[in-house]
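1st attempt posting a full record on here, be nice pls
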Amino acid sequence: MDLLDTPAEADFRNRLRDWLRDNVPDAPEPPALADRWPIMRAFQKKMYQGGYVALSWPKEYGGQGLGLMEEAILSQELGRTKAPTTLPISHLGRPLLSHGTEAQRKRYLPPLLACDEIWCQGFSEPGAGSDLASLRTRAIRSGDEYIVTGHKTWTSLGAYADFCLLLARTDDKVARHRGISAFILPLDLPGVEVRPIVLANGDEEFAELHLDGVRIPAENMLGASTDGWKIAMEVVSYERGAVDIGYLSKFEHAFAELVDQLRERRDEPAVQQTLGRIAANLEVLRMHSLRSLSARVCGGAPGPESSIDKLLMTEVEQHLMGASLQLLSDRTTRPHAEWFDRYLYARAGSIYGGSAQIQKNILAQRMLGLPKEAMA
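the predicted structure (as tokens):
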């Protein structure tokens, strides 16, 4: 497979570089999320207005009608600049694109992509993290509404969101996976309480959602009543891709920043060796992401092979941040030092989005065909 840019892709890359040069803010991002948030949102809006959001999506829903390779180029070029962190939009919009009604797509997708409305993902619960099928949030049909009661936790950007892609159990009489439905939940409905979760670094990146008799219009169900599990698996498949959620650009940007901060030590053999290993790992991740995208051009949505992306992404991030912590030890001794915060965040990479053990089980069962007994 030829991974070099085609003439059209090279032209797109050059135009994108020109746009980024003219539009990326000069000031670095503040360390605190509350201070970064307005900057991130403003830059995302600017990207949308410039035609650099949802590049591979249909134009009628706010996309650009380009290809997946342009998405990869965008992620790579963002990582080579000092652009603000991009918001994880793609993986939440995908189920609306593939399962939503025409009215839902036209109502929700353009403002989602334009960052006029922020979305979060209401999947995990206190007793249903890796075992998502055991979720207990219930939605009971009552006329033209569903009455929802339950508790969601570790909801990314929940404190900033306007809407939530919510999973709830609508049928107890069928297999666990088949009794789950997906809903579009406006977070300003009566009965919704959002409680921010304050992390060790002071950020409120996550939140709990408490749902007490929330009345959701039946028309807000996404797909059929039995589609909840399928929609959830589609979301997490996109979420596990380094390109789809912008992690490839995040890692490449962090590496470029690390190299810059070590410019006075680049001649040290130990520093050269460490940076070389990180660069090689990043290139493997980038090439694997391109290979995954190339396969999807023909095959559509990602499948169980996205677990490879998640495992590789976690390994790259943890190695990058662990090595950075050692090389910049003189800058990580202060409380909440930026690189130390990044290192702590990277440790969670083997848990969020499906733990590393879950990813290995998926690969063993669905790709290698191993029986469950063989993994005991």
